[in-house]
Design goal:
With 527 residues, the chain is α/β, with parallel strands linked by helices. Helix content is 30%, strand content 22%. The protein binds zinc ion.
Length: 527
């Protein structure tokens, strides 16, 4: 039996709907009827209107039924939502499920009822006995259901007693943007069914998340595993000082839900890697790359091509930012069309190393949200054929044209990258915690810091070879002993180790965390 999701302008013939699900192999049938009641929020209701954006509602409804079938393994499912004017006592939503056993039937029915309320682009207008009328999609202020344990524990339950939260109408929330002819009710419906994943809820992800939530993007995913530090607050505007020490994902979801109770926010507390990304790219329509390291940026750029989803990337270096949108369908090409491989780790410092003014990621995170909204709404001007570079100090912008490279390793004619790359498996990083004094003595210690840095955590046994003059072809030391490279925090030593290994060196390593992590050895040695 085929699953069916319908929108009906006519009153529902419930016995006929139930009869259509007759199944002699099934042991259970359950159905749900949502009725129009005569009061809401203390006001007497006479009638109501459902405004439905049908093409999107039908597609989203069909997707919900498919999810229910996959999750619960039921025999068949059918759902109908009314549109137009309804009277008191009318059935507004009907869901019927048949399955082998009652448990799956109940659970699938509940799932569909809840998802339909959350996700369908349907707006409800109530007509009151006093002659007034209001758009009131307050059903979204309810608690989540069993499958939505996203950590948002607080409830705006409409029926809850002593609820101090104001009741706001969804249509009022978006009134100013619906007024734009480029958005309208149809555009708002597109935003409601859109799913955007934000990878990294930091300096870029914070403003991006706030703007997308405020615009009404119906499902926002946050991929973030870090906890909040005080030094994040000047640019990561999703958080408050009270969130320091808390997992960022949960705090971000809480903030976005508080801003817009009509959307769903999902937290994915994991890293962006070859294991997690394939599934996540399946769950979302657009991905915002709000990370700050090249390995992840290349991984996400490759995923855009491999899974056919747009990825909007931004990066910040001091006062300058870069923006590009990779749309696999565009002739503008991907990140590897511009630069085939990432630069060695550590060559270009991240925010922690070089510093950043919070407004710079603020600007670029907002631009990333703008790109996502343009894609969802089908507006022109998506940055899919250029790279935008802007200096926040001079406000000068440059647009560099991008073209698909036929030799690109991922989107070219003969791609060599056909699946997401796993991280370099050669172990060339050493942790001071894994070293003993004897093991350390085996190495030639090379200090890559500049002369002015040496007095901090001095390494008297080390050979000094400042990174500013480092040349992998002629590094100033030989291979007669294993080499351990050290700098202030591990970035430059990592870059130098990679360059030497590229030159064929085998026994060359980088010290994770830099010179400060060796302090206890010299203390030990001095005693
Ligand atoms: Zn490419």
């Amino acid at each position: 039996m085929e699953d069916r999701f319908e929108i009906s302008a006519e009153a529902l013939d419930i016995p006929a709907l139930a009869a259509s699900l007759t199944d002699r192999t099934a042991g259970a049938f359950t159905s749900f009827e949502g009725w129009v009641r005569d009061h809401n929020d203390g006001r007497q209701v006479d009638a109501l209107d459902y405004e439905v954006f049908a093409p999107l509602a039908l597609a989203e409804g069909a997707a919900i039924l498919e999810e229910a079938r996959r999750k619960y393994g039921i025999n068949a499912i059918r759902a109908v939502h009314r549109q137009g004017e309804l009277r008191i006592g009318d059935c507004a939503v009907w869901v019927g499920v048949v399955s082998a056993h009652r448990d799956e039937a109940f659970r699938a029915c509940r799932y569909v009822v809840d998802e339909v309320k959350h996700r369908l682009p349907i707006w409800k207008k109530e007509h009151y006995r006093d002659g007034s009328a209001e758009w009131v999609n307050c059903q979204h202020l309810g608690t989540g259901h069993e499958d939505h344990a996203h950590g948002d524990g607080h409830s705006h339950g409409h029926g809850a007693l002593h609820d101090p939260a104001p009741v706001i109408a969804e249509a009022d929330f978006y009134a100013r943007q619906i007024r734009l002819p480029e958005v309208g009710i149809e555009g708002q419906a597109k935003l409601k069914v859109a799913r955007v994943l934000i990878v990294g809820a930091g300096g870029l992800g914070s403003p991006a998340g706030l703007m997308l939530a405020a615009a009404g993007v119906g499902t926002i995913g946050i991929l973030e595993f870090d906890t909040l530090e005080a030094s994040n607050l000047h640019r990561q505007v999703l958080y408050t000082a009270a969130d320091v020490g808390q997992p960022k994902g949960e705090a971000a979801a809480h903030r976005l839900k508080a801003l817009n109770p009509f959307i769903e926010v999902r937290v994915h507390q994991s890293k962006a890697d070859a294991d997690t990304l394939p599934d996540l790219f399946g769950q979302y329509d657009i991905v915002l790359d709000c990370t700050d390291n090249f390995a992840t940026k290349y991984l996400l750029a490759d995923a855009a091509v491999l899974y056919g989803k747009p990825v909007v990337q931004a990066s910040i270096h001091r006062f300058e930012g870069q923006l590009l949108t990779i749309d696999p369908k565009s002739p503008g090409g991907c990140l590897r069309c511009l630069w085939p491989a990432p630069p060695p780790e550590g060559l270009i410092g991240n925010c922690a190393e070089v510093g950043v003014l919070g407004v710079t990621p603020g600007l670029f995170g907002t631009l990333q949200a703008s790109e996502a909204l343009k894609i969802i709404l089908g507006l022109p001007g998506v940055l899919d054929r250029h790279l935008l570079i802007m200096d926040a100090l001079t406000l000068e912008t440059r647009r560099i044209a991008r073209r698909k490279d036929a030799d690109c390793p991922v989107c070219g004619a003969h791609p060599t990258i056909r699946e997401l790359q796993r991280r370099e498996t050669v172990v060339y990083e050493l942790d001071a915690g894994d070293l003993t004094l004897e093991a350390l003595a085996r190495f030639r210690l090379v200090d890559l810091r500049e002369a002015h840095e040496l007095s901090q955590h001095p390494l008297p046994q080390a050979q000094h070879a400042p990174f500013s003059r480092f040349d992998a072809a002629d590094p100033g030391f030989d291979k007669s002993r294993p080499v351990l490279l050290v700098c202030a925090s591990g970035g430059r030593s990592n870059a130098a180790a990679q360059q030497l290994r590229a030159q064929g060196w085998q026994d060359v390593f980088s010290l994770v965390g830099g010179a400060k992590t060796l302090g206890h050895f010299f203390h030990q040695a001095a005693e």
